[in-house]
Amino acid sequence: MTRFAVGVALLWAIACAAQPYPVRAIRFVVPFPPGGGMDLVGRAVADKLSPRLGQPIIIENKPGGGTTIGTDAVAKSAADGYTVLVSGIASQAIVHYMHPKRPFDMQRDFAPVARIADGTIAFVVPASSRANSVSDFVALAKREPGRLTFGSSGTGGIIHLTGEMFRQAAGIELVHIPYKGTAQILPDLLDGRIDLALDSVPAYLPHLKSGKLRVFAVASAERSALLPELPTMAEAGVPGVVAATDYALFAPAGTRREIVLRLSRETAAVLEDADLRAKLAAQAIEVRGGGPEALTAELANEMAKWQRVIRAADIKTE
Question: pTM for the full model?
Fold first, then answer.
């Protein structure tokens, strides 16, 4: 490269660094279909964040490939702060091991921006279940090894792996029944054709209120502020079962530090908004924020945790 070219490149870099941010619309890429929890959270945060940044935030749903299509699109985007990934920490940690041929690496190709919230995963059984607690269920499974079943929204997803985590922690044998989604799990759980779902709470709430389903515990490290009457899995007698459908923001690696910090600060501010908190709470989603450093550490911890579960369950990766 000539000295002239080097000089031009340097001047361009200085000009870019000096440009205020943001000066145009920002794109939030959600690697899930519209209407789900990730889409709801992304839109709720975008609605509050847009006025603070002074620019529109456009939601782009890019599902497919177990979140890899949308995630890869962001990884390949310009690192200028105008394309942001809305995704889960645990789900991306799982993708890291379940999809080893994916073209991106979350730790290499992304700059963690902000943690947003946790969706509660609960231990749900039919009203007709012979168990009246988690410990009852474990005792039944030990008396009848390999007869009790648990449903999930697909092999290798967080709901399946939370069930595997429970099975491993309790030292029991359960049969995994994979479905295409929670909508397909519900009829069989309601009719008692499967024995358990460790799943996100929102779709189950009407049936829990009607008494057609029962819930024994939450799979969080601490009791949920939204469901404080429910014990954690550890309190219910099975420590080591901690999982959540969490939500976070990631930018492409190389995004300027000041942009990452601006997005992180503004996100933290909107998470204090009472209307936003109420909207998420209605879906059993509890605000739990965090900055880039905390998110980086959590991603590393989640990767190690889910790698252990996947290896112990001997789940075949793609």
Answer: 0.88
